Amino acid sequence: MKKTKYAYSLWPVLLFVLIAPNQMMGQAFVSPSNKWYIDDCYIAPLQMTTICDTKSYWFEDTVTIDSTVYYELRTNDPEPVFEVGAYYREEGGVVFMKMNNNTEEFAIYDFNLEVGDLFLIDDYSNSLELEVLSIDSVTLISGERRKRLEMASALSPHRTTYWIEGVGSALSPMNPIYTFYFDVWVQLNCFHQDDMVEWQLGDCMLTHTKAESLTSEAIACYPNPATDALFLSTTSNRLIDRVTIFSLDGRPVTETVLQGTQPISVRELSKGIYVAAIIFEDGTIGRARFVK
What we know:
Blueprint: H1 10-19, H2 21-26, E1 34-44, E2 49-65, E3 68-75, E4 87-91, E5 94-98, E6 106-110, E7 118-122, E8 127-139, E9 145-153, E10 160-164, E11 168-169, E12 184-193, E13 196-200, E14 211-213, E15 219-222, E16 229-234, E17 240-247, E18 252-257, E19 264-265, E20 273-280, E21 285-291
Antiparallel strand pairs: 1-2, 1-12, 2-3, 2-14, 3-4, 4-5, 5-6, 7-8, 8-9, 9-10, 10-11, 12-13, 15-16, 16-19, 17-18, 17-20, 20-21
């Protein structure tokens, strides 16, 4: 595993701060300027649906613990589906999380990683080792470019997600140790900076959260995981018009106009997790999640 170096020459850092302070601050994950709207989802098999409630997370006050300054995480979710930390801090592109006053901190992000590097997230009771598959950049809605890392499970390389510098993971962004859970999961819905939408994978709610059934049309997709073809079925009488498949970084990768119950070809898709947006003939939309 690559060891991150924290020793930097002072003058180049000061010069960069003087020239472009906004760019540096804008890339910070642990910042009171940031707010995340996250879908807390689970499969309800009896209802043949996936239920997602949108919750919000943000950083507010600072607290000093053993001479180390942390930001406190705030949320409107009284019972998060996965455990999140009470305190977070960031140093040199590495984000640390501390569950509570009585636990040791551990690293949950390192945006300095390079292709092929391994990164272990270990909270002393659970662990997840990730590998960097590729690195590129994305453009936020404001026009600012951010570094993006494609991360895979070191044990199951077909399980992938994306990290965006300052935004976090598309899956379980506040505690990515829970990245690859499938019956219950947490995914990034919308990211705001200074109350402005900067990155969007779903509906954005600026002032409150909502309970959303992403597949209220009782949409089932199978087989899941899929290899060559994906079939969709619904118990309603409405017909599906077309299906757009999105990768977890929000990019549309295929669009298919359906005729009857024809399958959707996924043969050309890379291995990973996808969201299928199903558009019905009456204009309503449902969503289903599947693995390739």
